[in-house]
Design brief:
The complex is a heterodimer of chains A (250) and B (277). Chain A has 250 residues and is α/β, with parallel strands linked by helices. Chain A has 9 helices and 9 strands. In chain A, 34% of the residues lie in helices and 24% in strands. In chain A, α2 packs across α3. The longest helix of chain B is centred in the N-terminal third of the chain and has 26 residues.
Chain lengths: 250, 277
């Protein structure tokens, strides 16, 4: 991953989110670097999804989110790609994977058909995440792992500066999970983007994460996986020895 | 119109279509059923079948209020109140204060009660509001129906992809820059306009069937978005024309015949779907 500009980064400075009277996020400051896999960990209700929504610009926040290039200058637009945890959709809807993708790729309404260029772009995007043959499959007939890849292909087009994945590994079988992660790691090497992943799989975090952020309303600890895992804050949240226990389960 | 009458008489040498009122009704069906059917595909995808039913009922309050306020045209009154009603439902739904079907029930029963109260003081509570009378369509009415069809097609060109993404997952759609709330409201308003324009011809009791049945049947046999649209329009047109033709020979209610043909096709589509599995 050395050929990437790891100097490019997304800079969060004291990002807070309040809703009603309660504080959902308090002064979150962190960097998400290009060419790195940054992993967000924390308990349910720690504000992980809130942070993602703030990054995607879907909820108001205070503090600053900046996109900064290698020379320290602001890049005006932060293009984000988002892979949701799961799709809660009507699986009987008459909609193929290609329809679904084409609706995002092209302005031409899908009911009038899909143009040759769009078809090629969609099929290339699917092939890039190793599901090249899936275009004609109804979206509702895709397995959890296939759906995850469809969503990844969608999130990667147009090419984002920041790819955000919300626990993409849940609901996928072990083998599918491993393959999905490998695809993701390959992207880290080959594409110019920062990746932020929400994960509960601590073994995976230890093995692959470049940067780990432990969140509970605010950032409790951040750094390399071994640093965060050995911090007292980590023990306070997950219990002493949680990292080893979780690894033993897997 | 004369030219159209003679063309239809040549194409359809049935006894039914030697009468001008039947030809006008046929044209109305050809304009109306595809427009409602197309809107229905999204209503079904967004699981809003019950919503459009509730919207139909608001026509009653619209006419009632129009009468009290002394508006000359029923249609203007219905359109204004239909749109206000639709926007209100949309805003309340998006504020998330109650589930959608509860909101719709509240709106629907309020408008029926309000409409009944106002209309019971006059002679406007006619059979035609409830059941519709497509055989009474006049040439100028056809222009409204043509306008409706064009409006739906334009909306379907501009907003379809965004509506489709929103129906799959609103949060994902928003992450891709789609203004899901605005788009949902635009769709709901279009359904309201369609319901109000067509209610005199198909009636409050049956309007929802024309929206939902062809789209529901099309959905059973379609695999792609395009097939869904094409099958729905074909089913809507076939039901409309077949139902209207049957009406002439059996001297039955046109709206009811059209809906019954759609229901038969729906049953057939269910059989096909089950057989495929």
């Amino acid at each position: 991953m050395s050929h990437h500009c790891e100097l490019c980064h997304i800079d969060l400075d004291r990002v807070s989110v309040r809703r009603g009277g309660s504080v959902l996020l308090q002064d979150v400051s962190m960097h998400i670097h290009c060419g790195q896999l940054t992993v967000l960990i924390g308990q349910n209700g720690a504000g992980k999804t809130t942070l993602i929504k703030a990054l995607l610009g879907q909820i108001p926040h205070t503090g600053v989110i900046r996109h900064i290039d290698g020379r320290g200058l602001d890049i005006p637009h932060l293009r984000t790609g988002y892979v949701p945890q799961h799709l809660d959709f009507d699986r009987e809807m008459p909609l193929t994977v290609r329809d679904f993708m084409a609706a995002s790729f092209s302005r031409r309404p899908v009911w009038t058909g899909i143009g040759k260029k769009t078809r090629e772009a969609v099929d290339n995007a699917l092939a890039s995440v190793e599901i090249g043959g899936l275009g004609d499959r109804p979206l509702g007939r895709c397995s959890g792992g296939e759906l995850q890849r469809v969503l990844l292909a969608l999130a990667l087009n147009p090419a984002p500066d920041l790819l955000v994945l919300d626990e993409p590994v849940s609901g996928i079988d072990r083998n599918g999970m491993k393959m999905f992660l490998e695809t993701l790691l390959h992207m880290r090497e080959t594409r110019h983007m920062a990746i932020l992943l929400v994960s509960h799989d601590l073994r995976f975090v230890r093995e692959y994460a470049d940067h780990v952020v432990l969140l509970d309303k605010s950032v409790l600890a951040q750094g390399r996986a071994d640093e965060v895992f050995s911090s007292p804050e980590f023990d306070a949240i997950f219990g002493t020895g949680a990292a080893e226990e979780k690894e033993a389960e897997l | 119109m004369e030219a159209i009458y003679s063309i239809v008489k040549t194409i359809l040498p049935l006894e039914a279509y030697q009468y001008h009122f039947m030809i006008r009704a046929l044209l109305a069906v050809i304009l109306l059923t595809p427009a409602l059917g197309l809107l229905g595909t999204m209503a079904v995808n967004h699981q809003m079948a019950f919503f459009s039913d509730g919207l139909g009922h608001s026509a009653m309050l619209g006419i009632g209020l129009g009468m009290v306020l002394g508006l000359k045209s029923d249609l203007v009154a219905m359109l204004i109140f239909g749109v206000i009603w639709a926007v209100l439902i949309c805003v309340i739904k998006q504020s998330g204060s109650a589930t959608t079907d509860t909101i719709i029930s509240v709106f629907s029963s309020t408008s029926i009660a309000g409409g009944l109260l106002l209309l019971s003081r006059s002679d406007k509570l006619s059979k035609s509001l409830l059941l519709g009378d497509i055989l009474a369509v006049m040439p100028e009415d056809l222009l409204y129906l043509l306008g409706l069809l064009i409006g739906v097609i334009v909306l379907w060109i501009v907003l379809y992809n965004s509506l489709l993404m929103t129906s799959v997952d609103p949060f994902l759609a928003r992450s891709r820059g789609i203004k899901t709330r605005l788009i949902e409201c635009a769709f709901v308003v279009m359904v309201a306009v369609a319901v109000m324009i067509s209610i005199h011809w198909v009636g409050m009791m049956l309007i929802n069937a024309l929206l939902i049945l062809p789209a529901a049947a099309g959905r059973n046999i379609a695999r792609t978005s395009r097939q869904h649209a094409v099958f729905t329009v074909l089913i809507a047109l076939f039901s409309g024309i077949a139902g209207l033709t049957v009406t002439f020979y059996l001297d039955a209610s046109a709206g009811a015949s059209i809906v019954l043909v759609s229901a038969l096709i729906y049953a057939l589509s269910l059989v096909i779907r089950t057989a495929r599995k």
